[in-house]
Known about the structure:
The chain is an alpha+beta fold. It is 23% helix and 18% strand. It contains two helices and five strands, in the order βαβββαβ.
Amino acid sequence: MTTWITICDTCKRDDWTAETHDRPHGEDMAELVESHAAGRAVRTRRVSCLMGCAHGCNIAIQAPGKLAYTLGRFEPTEAAAEAVVAYAEMHAQSDTGRVPFREWPQEVKGHFITRHPPLPDTDEG
C-alpha cells in the first residue's frame, strides 16, 4: 500500500503578508517535500486547504487501512521536509501506520495535530 504525503499548498504561517511573501508558505513546503520524496517509497500530492489554518504548514500522512495523521506548525525548511518524508517512509513500512515515538525524526516531534483511525473495509455499519 502506498503512503501518501498530502501537502496544503495554500498554508500561510502567522508571519505571512503580501508585502513580505510572494506566495504561501505551503508552496515552499510542498516543493521541499516533493524534492525529498523523489525516488523514495512514498508519494506526494498537493491540495488547496486542509482547513488547519491555525497550524500552517499542514501535511497529512495516510494510506489505505492504516492510521492517518495530520501534522502542522512547520516552517518550510529542508530539515522539516526531510523529517516528514522519513516519517512517511516509516508509516509505509508499518502494518498499521503506527510508528513508535522513539523512532520519529526529531523534526516531526511536537508537530502532530490529529490521528484518524482507518476507514472500515466495508459499508456495513
